[in-house]
Amino acid sequence: MATFQIEGGHPLKGDIQPQGAKNEALQILCAVLLTPEKVTISNIPDIRDVNKLIQILSNLGVKIQKIKKGEFTFQSDDLQLDYLESEQFKTDGAGLRGSIMIVGPLLARFGKGYIPRPGGDKIGRRRLDTHFQGFINLGANFRYNREERFYGVEAPKGLTGTYMLLDEASVTGTANIVMAAVLAKGKTTIYNAACEPYLQQLCKMLNSMGAKITGVGSNMLHIEGVKTLGGCKHRVLPDMIEIGSWIGLAAMTKSEITIKDVSWDDLGIIPNTFRKLGITLERRGDDIYIPAHKDGYTIESYIDGSFMTIADAPWPGFTPDLLSIMLVTATQAKGEVMIHQKMFESRLFFTDKLIDMGAKIILCDPHRATVIGHNFKSQLKATTMTSPDIRAGISLLIAALSAKGTSTIHNIEQIDRGYENIDDRLRAIGAKIVRID
Ligand SMILES: CC(=O)N[C@H]1[C@@H](OP(=O)(O)OP(=O)(O)OC[C@H]2O[C@@H](n3ccc(=O)[nH]c3=O)[C@H](O)[C@@H]2O)O[C@H](CO)[C@@H](O)[C@@H]1O
Ligand SMILES: C=C(OP(=O)(O)O)C(=O)O
């Protein structure tokens, strides 16, 4: 378990470039399995989860060449499907959440796909019904080995397009079903599809490979199946969760920061949601400029004067992955806010650590926390903590950078899952942070 030691209380200053998006890269990398031709992907972040998925692809026999930092070619023309039945795959596949999305492409192209129960954050129940119900709708047979926690789908006669209404707008579920349906016979309609920018990117990539998907960006996708897909070039968007993390960090540490090349039009309601906490964000071209909030920031109330609530919802609602960052940022705001994490039931427990540091938070129930901001009248106190999940981890890091004294964060592998070289990048803008392996 590696550790960060952070001396807090110093404002940061400078430019920061967001990495490529973790959750887009995981979808896009799985899509390379859909064609025997070469696929070139750029802006791939160098983070633990993505590297684990690239290793799985390599073990499956995908030929992978690094062109330069963040840019790779992938060619899936001679896959070793036996790997899917190996003990090694049971360990590799369970190591991250994104591995679930290899099932759709494998099922579509080879008539079978297997996966151990995938890993990812332990942030509450994370069911996979939407994925497998989607495959069943397309004509696949499903089996689950409870003892080995191993899922399998097979469609020896191929998949056939159909109409389906998903029981929830699952992000990875939609990606998986889309990747299966592009090679199915006939037409598939997916209603209640997730439609976040990363899914739009996946659909655009698949169309550039020869797929026929319409409705991209809406919750109703129409897919006309094709027989084969070809190669393509694709660039991954900047990571909107990282961008949100830097906004929270800038406000909490009273730092003047410019976040470069954010692809503003793909950020949806993220900038405005931070503005509800009273944070000033300026659009400068495609950058976000955040001035040093020397006089703090004041949480807005609703028009009728009632108490602000910030809650997650499927896109274009506010992403659940930024609520922990909102919560920590609110601890120094002027005013009060209710943070309502509707999707995951175990994501707010890390507030205990913030309370230890002196934050005023009432955890009302597993889904809701009320934060009463200090308005910088009282600084958080340094402490020793362990990062329970990726977004709690970055939130604790933000708290530590704003706190008085030296904090220690253990289990920073959780942060490394999704943030590339975070200590070097933060040091470059003035953070006092040391990694101890
Ligand atoms: C690798 C990856 O891309 N992970 C992301 C993906 O996970 P993932 O695709 O696993 O998440 P899902 O979209 O399937 O569901 C997330 C949670 O929200 C619930 N749910 C979902 C949709 C809905 O309409 N109603 C509802 O209650 C689900 O039951 C589940 O508890 O999307 C999540 C939701 O944005 C993000 O937190 C994860 O970072
Ligand atoms: C929950 C997350 O990731 P994963 O789905 O990979 O666990 C996240 O990125 O915040």
UniProtKB/TrEMBL annotation:
Any one GO BP annotation for this protein: regulation of cell shape
UniProt keyword terms in alphabetical order: Cell cycle, Cell division, Cell shape, Cell wall biogenesis/degradation, Cytoplasm, Peptidoglycan synthesis, Transferase
InterPro entries according to UniProt: Enolpyruvate_Tfrase_dom, Enolpyruvate_Tfrase_sf, MurA_subfamily, RNA3'P_cycl/enolpyr_Trfase_a/b, UDP_GlcNAc_COvinyl_MurA
Documented EC number(s): 2.5.1.7
Gene Ontology MF term list: UDP-N-acetylglucosamine 1-carboxyvinyltransferase activity
UniProt domain Enolpyruvate transferase: residue ranges: 7-426
Record's catalysed reaction(s): phosphoenolpyruvate + UDP-N-acetyl-alpha-D-glucosamine = UDP-N-acetyl-3-O-(1-carboxyvinyl)-alpha-D-glucosamine + phosphate
Pfam families, A to Z: EPSP_synthase
Binding sites annotated in the UniProt record for phosphoenolpyruvate: K22, N23
Pathway this chain belongs to: Cell wall biogenesis; peptidoglycan biosynthesis
Enzyme class: transferase
Residues at the active site: D121 (proton donor)
Residues noted as binding UDP-N-acetyl-alpha-D-glucosamine in the record, renumbered to the chain: R97, D321, M343
GO annotations of cellular component type: cytoplasm
Predominant localisation class: cytoplasm
Subcellular location: Cytoplasm
Protein purpose: Cell wall formation. Adds enolpyruvyl to UDP-N-acetylglucosamine.
Entry's family note: Belongs to the EPSP synthase family. MurA subfamily.
Protein name: UDP-N-acetylglucosamine 1-carboxyvinyltransferase
Annotated organism of origin: Dokdonia sinensis
Gene name of the record: murA
